[in-house]
Specification:
The chain is an alpha+beta fold and 88 residues long. Helices cover 42% and strands 23% of the residues. The longest helix has 37 residues. It is rod-shaped.
Length: 88
Protein backbone atom coordinates (compact mmCIF):
# COMPACT_ATOMS: atom_id res chain seq x y z
CA UNK A 1 0.00 0.00 0.00
CA UNK A 2 1.27 3.44 -0.93
CA UNK A 3 0.88 5.96 1.90
CA UNK A 4 0.95 9.65 1.03
CA UNK A 5 0.69 12.77 3.16
CA UNK A 6 -1.37 15.61 1.70
CA UNK A 7 -2.44 18.98 3.04
CA UNK A 8 -5.64 20.92 2.44
CA UNK A 9 -6.16 21.68 -1.28
CA UNK A 10 -3.40 19.27 -2.33
CA UNK A 11 -4.08 16.40 -4.72
CA UNK A 12 -2.79 13.11 -5.99
CA UNK A 13 -3.16 11.86 -9.56
CA UNK A 14 -3.94 8.27 -10.49
CA UNK A 15 -3.18 6.99 -13.98
CA UNK A 16 -3.18 10.51 -15.48
CA UNK A 17 -7.00 10.42 -15.34
CA UNK A 18 -8.14 10.53 -11.72
CA UNK A 19 -7.49 13.41 -9.34
CA UNK A 20 -8.08 12.93 -5.61
CA UNK A 21 -8.07 16.25 -3.75
CA UNK A 22 -8.19 17.04 -0.03
CA UNK A 23 -11.09 19.49 0.36
CA UNK A 24 -11.53 19.77 4.11
CA UNK A 25 -10.09 18.35 7.32
CA UNK A 26 -12.40 18.58 10.30
CA UNK A 27 -11.94 16.66 13.53
CA UNK A 28 -11.50 13.00 12.67
CA UNK A 29 -12.86 13.37 9.12
CA UNK A 30 -11.21 14.17 5.83
CA UNK A 31 -13.38 15.36 2.95
CA UNK A 32 -11.99 14.37 -0.41
CA UNK A 33 -13.03 15.14 -3.95
CA UNK A 34 -12.54 12.72 -6.81
CA UNK A 35 -12.41 13.96 -10.39
CA UNK A 36 -12.55 11.03 -12.78
CA UNK A 37 -14.01 10.09 -16.16
CA UNK A 38 -17.66 8.98 -16.08
CA UNK A 39 -16.58 5.51 -17.14
CA UNK A 40 -14.81 5.03 -13.79
CA UNK A 41 -16.99 3.62 -10.99
CA UNK A 42 -16.39 5.29 -7.64
CA UNK A 43 -18.01 3.96 -4.45
CA UNK A 44 -17.44 4.10 -0.73
CA UNK A 45 -15.78 0.80 0.22
CA UNK A 46 -18.81 -0.52 2.14
CA UNK A 47 -21.05 0.12 -0.89
CA UNK A 48 -18.49 -1.54 -3.16
CA UNK A 49 -18.56 -4.63 -0.90
CA UNK A 50 -22.39 -4.69 -1.02
CA UNK A 51 -22.39 -4.48 -4.82
CA UNK A 52 -19.78 -7.23 -5.03
CA UNK A 53 -21.81 -9.46 -2.70
CA UNK A 54 -25.06 -8.86 -4.65
CA UNK A 55 -23.30 -9.63 -7.94
CA UNK A 56 -21.87 -12.85 -6.52
CA UNK A 57 -25.33 -13.92 -5.31
CA UNK A 58 -26.81 -13.16 -8.73
CA UNK A 59 -24.12 -15.20 -10.49
CA UNK A 60 -24.60 -18.12 -8.11
CA UNK A 61 -28.39 -17.99 -8.54
CA UNK A 62 -28.06 -17.84 -12.33
CA UNK A 63 -25.54 -20.67 -12.31
CA UNK A 64 -27.85 -22.75 -10.09
CA UNK A 65 -30.80 -22.07 -12.42
CA UNK A 66 -28.73 -23.02 -15.46
CA UNK A 67 -27.60 -26.25 -13.81
CA UNK A 68 -31.18 -27.13 -12.91
CA UNK A 69 -32.40 -26.43 -16.48
CA UNK A 70 -29.60 -28.57 -17.91
CA UNK A 71 -30.43 -31.36 -15.46
CA UNK A 72 -34.13 -31.23 -16.37
CA UNK A 73 -33.28 -31.35 -20.08
CA UNK A 74 -30.92 -34.28 -19.54
CA UNK A 75 -33.54 -36.17 -17.52
CA UNK A 76 -36.16 -35.54 -20.22
CA UNK A 77 -33.73 -36.83 -22.87
CA UNK A 78 -33.00 -39.97 -20.82
CA UNK A 79 -36.70 -40.54 -20.22
CA UNK A 80 -37.37 -40.20 -23.95
CA UNK A 81 -34.58 -42.67 -24.76
CA UNK A 82 -35.89 -45.18 -22.24
CA UNK A 83 -39.40 -44.90 -23.63
CA UNK A 84 -40.93 -42.91 -20.82
CA UNK A 85 -41.77 -40.09 -23.14
CA UNK A 86 -43.81 -42.06 -25.74
CA UNK A 87 -47.59 -41.77 -26.14
CA UNK A 88 -48.25 -45.47 -26.85
Amino acid sequence: MLILTRKLDESIMIDNKIEVKILKVQGGQVHIGVDAPRSVSIHRYEIYEQIKSENLKAVQKTTHSDVMKNLETSLADISSILGGGSDE
